[in-house]
Write a structure and sequence with these properties.
With about 150 residues, the chain is mainly β. The protein is built from one helix and eight strands. The chain has an eight-stranded antiparallel barrel. About 10% of the residues have low confidence.
């Protein structure tokens, strides 16, 4: 019985460590160009990212740019600020990365398969790719910041 309790305790401790590791991408991140801030959070067991800020220099007529490259014409008038661009990321503890997600590029209106890894607590790398071929994708770096 004593061994069972010890194993149970160690299992709970290990699970807590994995959950803590998985949540390291939660927070506010500058995109590579430092024109937008993206909030990454956990929703329904997966990680998503939403644009929460855009530098005023990108505004058009006092408003954030629209999603005018979206292939769905009915979505082209929505604001880029508030747009969810990361979806469905799941933490893979073995590879220490978040995968099985997608990333939407408002500049092109295209959605790509995506995976993410941390180089450090302050630097997140993302790679978008198509047709399941990870090595043929485009990488981006995001930098940890605050909303202020």
């Amino acid at each position: 019985m004593k061994k069972f309790i010890i194993l149970l305790f160690l299992g709970v401790y290990a699970f807590a460590g994995i959950a803590q590791e998985a949540n390291k991408i939660v927070g506010i991140w500058w995109n590579e160009e430092k024109t937008s801030k993206i909030e990454v959070k956990k929703k329904d067991g997966k990680y998503i990212g939403t644009i929460v800020y855009m530098i005023p220099e990108k505004y058009e007529n006092g408003e954030p740019p629209k999603d005018d490259e979206n292939p769905d014409k009915s979505l082209q008038n929505r604001s880029i600020v508030g747009l969810q661009i990361l979806s469905g990321l799941e933490y893979d503890a073995d590879d220490k990365e978040w995968d099985k997600g997608t990333i939407y590029d408002p500049k092109s209106g295209k959605t790509y398969d995506c995976y993410v890894w941390l180089e450090s607590d302050e630097l997140m790398k993302l790679k978008g790719y198509v047709a399941g071929i990870k090595w043929m994708g485009k990488s981006s770096e995001w930098y940890k910041t605050t909303l202020d």
